[in-house]
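Project outcomes to date are best conveyed with an example. Our students and postdoctoral researchers have been running inverse folding experiments weekly, and each run begins with a structure described purely in tokens. The record below, which covers 65 residues, was selected by the lab manager from last quarter's runs and is presented without edits.
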């Protein structure tokens, strides 16, 4: 497996705990937040989609095994 770099500054995770609490309390459905799903092998495509979130209408992107 090659070396890769993940840059997470694109998204500020300060609100992540609030998001988890909102979903856990069922105030919103997680399915409504997930706009795109990708396999781990599609990681580059997933990051490209999220980098262009407005154009791709990507609120949340999920990577699955």
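After processing, the design step wrote out the following sequence:
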């Amino acid at each position: 497996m090659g070396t890769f770099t993940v840059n997470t500054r694109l998204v500020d995770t300060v609100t992540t705990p609030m998001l988890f609490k909102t979903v856990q309390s069922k105030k919103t459905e997680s399915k409504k937040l997930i706009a795109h799903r990708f396999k781990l092998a599609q990681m580059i495509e997933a990051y490209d989609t999220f980098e262009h979130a407005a154009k791709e209408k990507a609120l949340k992107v999920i990577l699955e095994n």
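The radius of gyration is 13 Å. The longest strand covers residues 34-39. The training component of this project remains on track.
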